[in-house]
Design brief:
single chain; alpha+beta; Triger factor/SurA peptide-binding fold; Chitinase A, domain 3; 3 domains; 5-stranded antiparallel β-sheet; 4-stranded antiparallel β-sheet; 24 helices; 20 strands; 16% strand
Length: 523
C-alpha cells in the first residue's frame, strides 16, 4: 500500500465531514503530540464506549471533546469556559458523535460498502499536511503517520474507516431534493441580518462575590438535603476521581529512520544533569525536542490513565512529587519525566461532601439572584435612555470619561458588540445559543432595547439591536446556487439524523459515563 502511494499523485475524495477530520489531524495532533490517542502505542486501560461489542478507546473521546471545545471557543472567545462546556453537555456530545460514527462504519461494512486502495491513496495524497513544494511528499507522510498512529499501516486503517463513514453518509443523503421555493425562502433568511450591543452578567463573577457564612451553609444543608444528594449523584465523576500527576518532560524525538540509541543517550545525559543538581527546566531548555512545551519548562499539565501514551502515563503515575523517572519510551521518542504535583485518587462520600456541596449550591443561588437584579436594573436604565456602553464602559472608554469600570468578583462588566450575524441563526457571536433572544431581535428595529432580560447558561444578558439588514431581491440570482447547495447539505443532515436514530435503537451501546467527568477535569 505505501509503495503505491509514491506513484499515485492525482485524485481527491471529498466526503461529508472529512474536511474537519483532516484539519484536526493536521493541526491538533501533529508529530510529537503525546495527548494523541491509542493508535500511537496501544490504548490505555479506560474506554469511552462499547458499540455492538466494538470498544472505543477513551483517548478518542478526548480528541473529539477537544475539537468541540476549540470550535465553541473560536466562536465565543473568552466567554467560553470549562464550566460552560459542562453546562452545555459538551462531553456527552463528543461521546455521542463517536458512538454515531462507529454505528455508521459498522452499517457500511454490513452493506458491503468498501473503500478501495486507490481511493484511500488518492485521499491521502490530497491532505495538504503531507505536501512539500506543492506535491505529495512520502517521507513527510510516513513520519507524521508514525508519530500520530504508531505506523503508516495503522493510520491508513483508521483513515479508511473515515472514508467509509463518509461514503455511507453520502449514500443515505443522496436522494435529497431541494425545490426553487425552498431555496428562495432560505436565501431570504440568510439575507436577514442584525447586530447587537449587549452586556453579560457572568454567574461565575457574581458567585465569587458571594461569601455565605458557615451557619448559613449548615442551615441550607439541613433544608435542602434532597437537592444536595441529587447533585452528588449527578456529578459522580467529580467525587470519584482518578489519580493524576502534573508533569514536566524532556523529549528526545525519534523520527522514522532515526537512531533510537542516540535519542536514549540524550535522555540519559538529561537524567545525569538533573541528578547532579541542575534545574529540570534548564535541562529542558538545553535538550528537549518538544518545541510546544520547551518555553514553559516542559510542562505538560496533568496526566491521567488512558489519556496519554500508555507507557508515558504508566511512568508518570508511578512518580512521587518531585521525583524524576528513568528514561521512558513512547511513540514520540524517549522522555525524562518529573512529577511536579501528585493528586491522589479519591472518592468523596455524600456525607463528606455535604457541606461543600451546600456551600456551592447556596453560592450559585445567590449569584443568580444578584446577577438577575443587576441585569434588571441595567435593562430598566437602558429602556429609560441610558446606553449600555455608558452604564458599563470598557477600560478605554472609562478612562476617557474619567469613570470607574464596573467590576464584579474582580471581573470587569462591559458592553460588547456582536458584529453582524444572520438573524435566522439561533447562535449569537460571543453569547452562544440564544434562540429566544434572536427571535426578539428579529422583531425589533435598530436602536431598540430588547423587551426583557435573557437567561443564558453563562448568566443573564441585556441587549440592544444596533443594526438590521433586510433582504434585497435584486441579489437573489447571484446567490441562488450557493444557497441551494447549503440547503441541500442541511436537508441531508436531517435525513442522516433520522437514519442514525434507527441505528441507535437497534444497537447495543454501553457508555463509560464515569470517564467523562474525570477526563474533562484533566483537560
Amino acid at each position: 500500500m505505501l509503495e503505491g502511494l509514491r506513484a499515485n499523485k492525482g485524485g481527491i475524495i471529498t466526503w461529508i465531514f472529512l474536511g474537519a477530520i483532516i484539519l484536526v489531524f493536521v493541526i491538533s495532533f501533529g508529530p510529537g503530540s503525546l495527548n494523541q490517542g491509542g493508535g500511537c502505542a496501544g490504548a490505555g486501560a479506560s474506554y469511552a464506549a462499547k458499540v455492538n461489542g466494538k470498544t472505543i478507546p477513551a483517548v478518542e473521546w478526548e480528541r473529539q471533546y477537544s475539537q468541540l471545545y476549540d470550535l465553541y471557543q473560536s466562536q465565543m472567545g473568552g466567554g467560553f469556559t470549562r464550566e460552560l462546556a459542562a453546562q452545555l453537555g459538551l462531553a456527552e456530545q463528543a461521546l455521542s458523535q463517536l458512538v454515531d460514527r462507529e454505528l455508521v462504519i459498522q452499517e457500511a461494512k454490513e452493506r458491503g460498502i468498501v473503500v478501495s486502495d486507490e481511493e484511500l491513496s488518492s485521499a491521502i495524497h490530497a491532505i495538504p499536511a503531507f505536501h512539500r513544494s506543492g506535491a505529495f511528499h512520502f517521507e513527510t507522510y510516513e513520519a507524521a503517520a508514525r508519530q500520530n498512529f504508531g505506523s503508516p499501516a495503522k493510520f491508513e486503517s483508521w483513515y479508511r474507516e473515515q472514508l467509509l463513514y463518509g461514503k455511507m453518509l453520502a449514500a443515505v443523503g443522496e436522494t435529497v431534493k431541494v425545490s426553487g421555493a425552498e431555496v428562495k425562502e432560505a436565501w431570504q433568511a440568510d439575507a436577514d441580518k442584525l447586530s447587537l450591543s449587549f452586556v453579560r452578567f457572568p454567574l461565575a463573577a457574581f458567585q465569587a462575590e458571594v461569601k455565605p457564612s458557615d451557619a448559613e451553609v449548615k442551615a441550607f444543608a439541613e433544608k435542602d438535603g434532597a437537592r444536595i444528594e441529587q447533585f452528588h449523584k449527578d456529578n459522580a465523576a467529580r467525587f470519584d476521581q482518578q489519580k493524576k500527576v502534573r508533569v514536566r518532560h524532556v523529549l528526545a524525538r525519534v523520527t522514522p529512520g532515526a537512531d533510537d540509541a542516540a535519542a536514549r543517550k540524550k535522555i540519559e545525559e538529561a537524567a545525569a544533569r538533573v541528578k547532579q543538581g541542575e534545574a529540570f527546566e534548564k535541562v529542558v531548555a538545553a535538550l528537549s525536542d518538544d518545541e510546544g512545551t520547551k518555553a514553559r519548562g516542559g510542562d505538560l499539565g496533568f496526566v491521567t490513565e488512558g489519556l496519554f501514551d500508555e507507557q508515558f502515563a504508566k511512568a508518570a503515575l508511578a512518580l512521587e512529587q518531585g521525583q524524576v523517572s528513568a528514561p521512558v519510551r513512547s511513540a514520540s521518542g524517549w522522555h525524562l519525566v518529573k512529577a511536579e504535583e501528585v493528586v491522589p485518587a479519591k472518592k468523596v462520600s455524600l456525607a463528606d461532601a455535604r457541606l461543600d456541596i451546600a456551600r456551592e449550591l447556596l453560592q450559585q443561588d445567590r449569584a443568580r439572584k444578584l446577577a438577575a437584579e443587576r441585569a434588571q436594573a441595567a435593562h430598566a436604565a437602558a429602556r429609560s435612555g441610558k446606553p449600555l456602553a455608558q452604564q458599563f464602559p470598557d477600560a478605554e472608554a472609562a478612562k476617557k470619561a474619567k469613570a470607574t469600570p464596573v467590576k464584579v468578583g474582580g471581573q470587569t462588566i462591559a458592553a460588547e458588540e456582536t458584529g453582524t450575524f444572520t438573524a435566522s441563526s439561533p447562535f449569537v457571536p460571543k453569547l452562544g445559543p440564544a434562540a429566544e433572544l434572536v427571535g426578539a431581535a428579529r422583531a425589533a428595529k435598530a436602536g431598540e432595547v430588547l423587551p426583557k432580560v435573557y437567561d443564558l447558561p453563562a448568566g443573564p444578558v441585556v441587549a440592544v439591536v444596533t443594526a438590521r439588514e433586510t433582504p434585497d431581491e435584486k441579489a437573489f440570482e447571484g446567490a441562488r446556487d450557493q444557497v441551494a447547495e447549503r440547503l441541500r447539505n442541511e436537508k441531508e443532515a436531517q435525513v442522516v439524523s433520522r437514519w442514525l436514530e434507527g441505528l441507535r435503537k437497534d444497537a447495543e451501546i454501553e457508555r463509560n459515563l464515569s470517564l467523562l467527568g474525570s477526563a474533562a477535569a484533566a483537560q
